[in-house]
Prior knowledge:
Elements: E1 2-6, H1 15-28, E2 33-37, H2 43-47, H3 61-64, E3 83-85, E4 88-91, H4 100-103, H5 113-119, E5 126-130, H6 137-144, E6 148-154, H7 157-173, E7 181-188, H8 195-207, H9 222-231, H10 235-238, H11 243-259
Parallel strand pairs: 1-5, 1-6, 2-4, 2-5, 6-7
Antiparallel strand pairs: 3-4
Helix pairs in contact: 1-11
The structure holds adenosine-5'-triphosphate and magnesium ion.
Adenosine-5'-triphosphate binds next to helix 1 and helix 9.
Amino acid sequence: MVVLTFFNHAGGVAKTSTVRDIGYVLAEQGRRVLLIDMDPQANLTKWLGVEDDIALEQTVYPAIIGSGEDGDADRELALPEPVRVHGMDLIPAHLNIAIIEREILSVFLGVLRLREAVRKLSGYDVVLIDPPPSLGQLSALAVVASDRVVVPLPTNRKGLDGIPTVIKMVREYKKAARDLNIALFVLTQHDRRTRHDRESHEIITAQLPALAPISTPLASRPAYYSDAQVQGMPIPVYAPGSEADLEVRQVTAELVAALGDLL
Length: 263
Ligand SMILES: Nc1ncnc2c1ncn2[C@@H]1O[C@H](COP(=O)(O)OP(=O)(O)OP(=O)(O)O)[C@@H](O)[C@H]1O
Ligand SMILES: [Mg+2]
């Protein structure tokens, strides 16, 4: 089993979209996939069409903090039963997982809690974690729980500006997860019609491969992405056979190659 967090503290860089779509393709290829929504916004949960009221007990909350019952502190707390969506298992999110940011600070070695819970799982080939856009505790829990980080990166100024912090934070998180490394930079929202995006892509291509491989860019296709969300479908389900679908499959293959023996 390999655990991957799609990490970038910057907001709106396609963390959630890439977790959803790459997770779907991995599952379609026969791998047993678990997705974990660690973002109080719960976009991954919603975009997979899980509209039902989710209780806090169905999220990562009990495994990380406990249920508040006596004895929790000593008990090994397990992740809840997942929801089944599009051939994948999902541990959904709820707005109130935001409370973890505060409560985790009083848990001894709290930042390791998700790592411990995930490592007790069996029956999965791959676990993909979608953290919120922040450098807070939820992101730390997610990254520290993982074997490798995948960095979604838009091919524009915002993408370039965020890189130093991403690298610095991965180095920080390594203190709690020594084998952690960046597996792949997944280039997202690429608009090759604009010079700005082409230039940013050139800079990324020149500089980042020294750190980790970079993917084929996922093109910017606002209509596809927003419609797929409304329909509660991954891109390969919403638009099978489209260029958007083929790109997602290509990037998934590149991720599988980058992971090598880990997957
Ligand atoms: N290839 C793409 N083309 C066009 N729009 C895209 C593409 N990928 C993602 N988007 C859109 O960009 C927005 C941000 O994507 P997404 O929510 O996946 O990013 P995120 O990094 O998870 O955001 P947050 O930081 O809020 O969690 C969404 O509205 C999504 O539909
Ligand atoms: Mg997101």
